[in-house]
Amino acid sequence: MDQAQRAVHQPGQRSAQKSAKPTFSELFTPKLVTVWREGYHLPQFRADFMSGLTVAIVALPLSMAIAIASGVTPERGLYTSIIGGFIISALGGSRFQIGGPAGAFIVLVAATVARVGVDGLLLATMMAGVFLLAIGYLRLGTYIKFIPYPVTVGFTAGIAVIIFSGQIVELFGLKLTGKEPGPLVPKLMAIGEAAGTINLAATFVAVLTIVTIAGLKRWRPTWPAMLIAIGLASLVVALLALPAETIGTRFGGIPRSLQMPALPPVSLGRMIDVLPDAIAFALLGAIESLLSAVVADGMTGRRHRSNCELVAQGFANIASALFGGICTTGTIARTATNVRAGAHGPISGMIHSAILLALMLVAAPLASYIPLAALAGVLAVVCWNMFEKQAFATLLRASRGDALVLMVTFLLVVFRDLTEGIVVGFVLGSILFIDRMAKSIAVEADLPLVQEDVADSSGRAYDASEASDVDTVVYRISGAFFFGAASTVGTVLDRIADQRKNFILDCSAVPFLDSTAANVIEGAADKARRAGVRFIISGATPQTRRMLINHGVKRPLVTYAASIRDARAQLNGKRETQ
What we know:
This is SulP family sulfate permease. Keywords: Membrane, Transmembrane, Transmembrane helix. Pfam families: STAS, Sulfate_transp. It is a multi-pass membrane protein. By secondary structure, the protein is mostly helical. It has 26 helices and 7 strands. β6, α25 and β7 form a beta-alpha-beta unit. The longest helix is centred in the middle third of the chain and has 33 residues. 45% of the residues are buried.
């Protein structure tokens, strides 16, 4: 067994690597348990109560607005925040995550309801929860973060455009002749045809809501702007008897209790029918929740457990559907509000759900007076905030590749489909990354082999024969050596037998090497053996050696050395024995 093989098969090294891996309990222990172990007392509870109250005030109108925009009744949004939000906080891997219905789901949920009805939506939500559980327990959550930034900005901006287009009818109180189309272009055409039916009262209420929110955000940023705007709009409509449609006139109000848990109709055919919707829910839920957790980490300096968070999202979606709620996920705006309000841990999110339940039980009749135009105004503000204008402009200026990924994702989301936009954007981003990485790899050649520069006090004597060894060439590879760079490096390595007797391939600056690269080196080594050239690989990490040995790059094709100096010693030893 040669030196490289002995390094690979050291049992102590394997045990050290295994012990460094986190255990199952470390990966899936909820942050609630972590916070409790740290010590939880009255001051922490007081901070969580105040932050939970603040978030509940924000979530109350937003949950109903998102539900209505999604094509379901407003109470389903509250069920989602109460049940799903509680479970996400109780079982999740983030200290500050607030769960509930999210604006990003409006397009998908509305399309699912239109196609398969509410029962189909509930079944798809439960299936998405099962998929999220599988993703979490299989520890695939760490890979969600590899979605390129231009893709997340592009699909978020696209969702904002679609949501806003869906609120135009309510913002202006328009009366469409038929059902509102789903695709953007037909929808805008239908809105244009109904422009003559504008309701000035609804328009006034929507403008009043938007101006109130904007003004409070500017002059009183700590006040609950959305709730105050909704309350003011409701009061104006009631006192002036404005002819603006309300929750009461359209939905008859909201119930004053949670519905009992129940399974939606389940059959194999039904499950196959909603499978694409469930996959889309799971994918978007994973992205949205982990992105929200990352935002919270950036604001607090904490670290979330991504796979534990996805498991909590899975249980939350299953429970939400059982209680009649819609898709739930971590919400960036409410999570950021929770952090700014001084939350200490997950109990804040649980309190937020409990307060929403109490408000629904006590104040449900008041919801009947909320104008739909006011809720549309709230969503218009949400869309404005969702569209990351500065990030969008920066990516357009950053590079052609990033701009291409951004615009393709954005346009596909707006004019085609959300899932299609994410998938195509991810593929383009991956191709762009491969191209950039392939161009970053460098191959340097030393010809002839020159003795390394040493200090005068090192005691090493100058060796003229070493410095003038024209029979030895050293190639240094710098950068990740993978399939994208295999062709470039392979072309260089094909010349190693050109009038040389000894070849040293220095891999000390190679952080990663894949099977394609190992196959290229194996081919070069085999060619060198046939030409009588001695092939030495120096500086390879244990992982690189293991990959190479597994692909047959070992004796008699090559020998390994810890450094170029050791490789020189091997060559000198060969000369002495010859």
